[in-house]
Task: structure prediction
Amino acid sequence: MNILISDAFDPSLPNRLKKFGQVTDDASKLPEADVVLIRSKTKCTKEYIDNAPNLKLIIRGGVGLDNVDAEYAKKKGIAVYNTPDASSVAVAELTFAMMLAVPNWLIEAHNTMMAGKWAKKELKRTELMGKTLGLIGTGRIGSEVAKRALAFGMTVIGYDKYVTKSDTIKLKSLNEVLAESDYISLHVPLTDETKGMINKQTIGKMKDGVVLINTGRGKCIVEEDIAEALKSGKIKTYATDVWCSDPPADTCPILKAPNVLLAPHIGASTNENLLRIGDTIVNILENFQQS
Ligand code: NAD
Result:
């Protein structure tokens, strides 16, 4: 079979896939591809799929399928897989790195030192212990974040429309989570229901000075409303790994807002996770060959 690797994976992957057939990363070979491997960058739209008449299998290395027209692929008899279990620890660790960086002023401490300033008096830190973390979405990644927060002595509450039980997270209504949390972390997929769910109205229900962390999806928040809330101080800091587009447009209001901590969609990009994604892809291809 012809395998097209369309996005960035672990460098060992092409060699590991040679046992299944021809492997290329040349996008012009799409018309000959039987299998396409993508992460976030490639958008498997109707047009993309129509340009690949031999396509039998799409594998998205990562969680979610929001960059694949899975319904259209299935209509054309193309199997679609992702690797949902691989990335949870990688994304949870980035979320927690952001949660630690904000109250410890790590970015400001580094920048002021580099600028030759001794900001010892200005940089008064706060602790995570005793604070309340509110998770929106308590699935795989939300649960991994919860474990880490509990180890730091935080109270962990969460809202999930489709989960009714959790051993570690006190499940509450969305309004309760918004009102009670010092830190809010988003871990829902992008769907019609979650698109824009953090907006002027929901921000209004949050505590003054809340820290909002988004390693879920950029379109789950309304960027203009977050920027306004940052300017007024309603939101103390917005830490985000995810954007309305990758990379964000120059006009993205978050780029010009105060008190932000920004990352270029690197939640899943640990060496370990890319190896785990590779393992899952090999398993999917083995099963696919046997079926
Ligand atoms: P998951 O499916 O295990 O958990 C998502 C949870 O959201 C589920 O429990 C689900 O019930 C809940 N949910 C769905 N719709 C909801 C709604 N309307 N209101 C409240 N809760 C709702 O997925 P996961 O592995 O935890 O990943 C979560 C998201 O993280 C992914 O969908 C993806 O968007 C994002 N992600 C980001 C990166 C990154 O690089 N930053 C990497 C991987 C995943």
